[in-house]
Automatic annotation (TrEMBL):
Gene3D superfamilies: P-loop containing nucleotide triphosphate hydrolases. The keyword Nucleotide-binding applies. It comes from Umbelopsis vinacea. It is an enzyme of class 3 (hydrolase). Its main location: cytoplasm. GO terms for cellular component: cytoplasm; nucleus. It is found in: Cytoplasm; Nucleus. Coiled coil: none annotated. Residues 320-347 have a biased composition (Acidic residues). Its EC number is 3.6.5.-. Keywords: Cytoplasm, GTP-binding, Hydrolase, Nucleotide-binding, Phosphoprotein. This is GPN-loop GTPase. GO terms for molecular function: GTP binding; GTPase activity. It comes from the Eukaryota.
Length: 382
């Protein structure tokens, strides 16, 4: 196959993962049901994951349900936990098997366009826990992933509640580092137009703050200035999970967020993955180097020295003393050569002439010489 054919080959289709996150009571599960029904009506059924172990019943059928793997009430009993601790522990246990979950998702990835993920009602359990971060990062590294932050619109009409939701949305955006969609739910009760005005028109929010005489008004005024830049990069839609109003707008925002993921977020995610992989390789190489160095040092290890035995030391001292005595004998012999030598001195000189004992032939010659010398002395005396 030529390079032109390879470049023109279609890339493998990947579904978009939609993480539905929101406060308790914001209508996440009801919105999930509406999204599921709308996609089934379009003959494009989604793949659904339920990550809420404490939900009693679901209005839709989940392809993968955490309740099939972890019993929330049994976890509370065995670990002596409360409701929030039981949800967190159940999510942690489920995360240990999330690689198997991905295998099931991969089998259906080519036949679906969307993966819907319903998260626990306690928003902090998923967004700020280690297990939630692992699930989010794993999905984002595998498929285009979008965060849909669900807001209860009727409860956000006061500036204080609105600002609290915006601050939470800002923190989740910078925590997940993924394309973000603000979904104002329950627009059939209260329109979300006031929220759009507050986000786009600074003076409109200031007028709403003037009606609030509490001490929080000054804080919200300052925070609105900080969040003005944050608003400009957000996609905002209003939906009604009951009537289905705004669902098409929501999916249009999902398409735009998917393109944003491909162009802006995916390169950064791949760069981070490569950095982690290279760092892991460097750590392994460093460990291997340290192991080899330790092995080399053990092989080259030399003892610091051992004590010299006293016997060998005494023997060396004797040798040194013997050499000194020999030198003194040589000096005495030189002095005796200047004067007269007696028979005893000559005999000692002959015996001490060498450091080593004379051979047997030398001893015989010495005996003959001594006998001749004695005979000569006797003849001279007569």
């Amino acid at each position: 196959m030529s390079s032109s054919e390879t470049s023109s080959a279609p890339t493998e289709k990947q579904p978009t993962t939609i993480l539905c996150i929101g406060m308790a009571g914001s209508g996440k599960t009801t919105l999930m049901q509406r999204l599921n029904a709308d996609l089934h009506a379009k003959k494009t059924p989604p793949y659904i994951l339920n990550l809420d172990p404490a939900v009693s019943s679901l209005p839709f059928t989940a392809n993968i349900d955490i309740r099939d793997t972890v019993n929330y009430k049994e976890v509370m009993k065995q670990y002596n936990l409360g409701p929030n601790g039981g949800i967190l522990t159940s999510l942690n246990l489920f995360t240990t098997k999330f690689d198997q979950v991905l295998k099931f998702v991969d089998k259906r990835a080519g036949s679906v366009d969307h993966i819907l993920v319903d998260t626990p009602g306690q928003i902090e359990i998923f967004t700020w826990s280690a297990s939630g971060a692992i699930i989010t990062d794993t999905l984002a590294a595998t498929y285009p992933t979008v965060v849909a932050y669900i807001i209860d619109t009727p409860r956000t009409t006061s500036p204080a509640t609105f600002m609290s939701n915006m601050l939470y949305a800002c923190s989740i955006l910078y925590k997940t580092k993924l394309p973000f969609i603000l979904v104002f739910n329950k627009t059939d009760v209260v329109s979300h137009s006031f929220a759009v005005d507050w986000m786009t028109d600074f003076e409109s929010f200031q007028q709403a703050l003037q009606q609030d005489a509490t001490y929080m008004s000054s804080l919200m005024n300052s925070m609105s200035l900080v969040l003005d830049e944050f608003y400009s990069h957000l996609k905002v839609v209003g939906v009604s999970a009951v009537t289905g109003e705004g669902i098409d707008d929501f999916f249009e925002a999902v398409k735009a967020a998917t393109k944003e993921y491909e162009t802006e977020y995916k390169p950064e995610i791949e760069r981070l993955i490569q950095e982690k992989a290279s760092q892991h390789i460097q750590e392994k190489e460093e460990q291997h180097r340290q192991q080899q160095l330790s092995k080399l040092m053990n092989d080259m290890k030399v003892s610091k020295g051992t004590e010299v035995p006293l016997d060998s030391g005494s023997k060396r001292m004797e040798d040194e003393q013997w050499e000194e005595e020999d030198e003194e004998e040589y000096e005495n012999e030189d002095e005796d050569d200047e004067g007269e030598e007696t028979d005893d001195e000559q005999e000692n000189t002959l015996l001490g002439a060498s450091r080593f004992p004379p051979s047997s032939s030398q001893q015989q010659n010495d005996a003959k010489f001594k006998a001749w010398l004695n005979q000569a002395n006797e003849s001279s005396m007569n």
